[in-house]
Amino acid sequence: MQQRIGRVTTGDGTELAVAEIGAGRPLLYVSGWLGHLQLSAEVPEERAFIDMLGRGCRLVRYDRAGCGLSAPSDRPPSLAFELEQVSAVADTLGSEPFDLVGASLGAVVAVAWAAEHPDRVRRLVLYGGWVSGAALSPRSAQEHILGLVESHWGIGSDVLTDIFAPDADAASRQAFARYQRASSSAATARALLAMGYQLDVGDLLARVRTPTLVVHRDRDRATPLAQGTALAEAIQGAQLVVLPGRSHLPSFGDTAALVATIRRFLGLRAARASTGVLTARQKEVAALVSRGCSNREIAARLGIDERSAEGHVERIRLRLGFRSRAQIAAWYVAQAGRASGDADARRRELR
């Protein structure tokens, strides 16, 4: 993922960081709660999701005010301020209608922006969104989470990661919790989360005229499926696609199925099928994975840094269409066994 990072300024002077990858028709992505354009490349699952989504288009993302590489603001979070930030980024995309994808909190923001700018959006995709934030969980549970984030951001980020990405392994959950903490302060995180709980876009949905796809996982632990269904029912002509899974974050769980669903609706080509062919270096890495080596151990053995080793493992996983290191290890053992059997057969033929 080779991204280009620039800056835009909102009407009140707040400076936002914007990242682009690829070329072609613009696709503006409004992320969920927190984000960091630079550090997202260090979370393998997040990097893979963005890379798959951005193929064949000009994918544009931004860090909201107070998060990641964007400047803080004295203004408290609000839907109005969120819409101003989307507008500042949208103004850089040209005069033609563009595709708009929102995930989680970003879905709520995206649907509100599309309602106000019907001529600017070509197609709208809402993943893991909701109509009413108050309906996401009991008020007592929301207050508990907000208090935890405010009083102990470390524990709060761990708890939220368990809710957002229950399908992730322990190492990935730890990495994503660190990513959340690096993306914003505890005060900003609490304020944005509280805003999400307060947002209600029910009165805006009838104004959406853009062709819309609503995607939701059936056992999403952060946003009940009923909220996704309510979004689709209230937007005229909206399609609803329900995918299996528990993870709220789009970069965890069956990400390939989610991305394929989105790309199909947007008219983008399906991701190229896995060839199962690895480079020489990737074969070395796969061999070490099959021996149970960690990324740090792989890096030490090959004389590379740990981040490069992590990137190799992720590219192997994507190329082979796998979801885990265990699958890579099993594949390599099977390939090695098959190669050994073929060599034995050739030797027998030569006797």
TrEMBL record:
This is Pimeloyl-ACP methyl ester carboxylesterase. PROSITE patterns: HTH_LUXR_2. Residues 271-336 form the HTH luxR-type domain. The lineage of its organism: Bacteria, Bacillati, Actinomycetota, Actinomycetes, Micrococcales. GO terms for molecular function: catalytic activity; DNA binding. InterPro entries: AB_hydrolase, AB_hydrolase_1, AB_hydrolase_fold, Sig_transdc_resp-reg_C-effctor, Tscrpt_reg_LuxR_C, WH-like_DNA-bd_sf. One of its GO terms (biological process) is regulation of DNA-templated transcription.
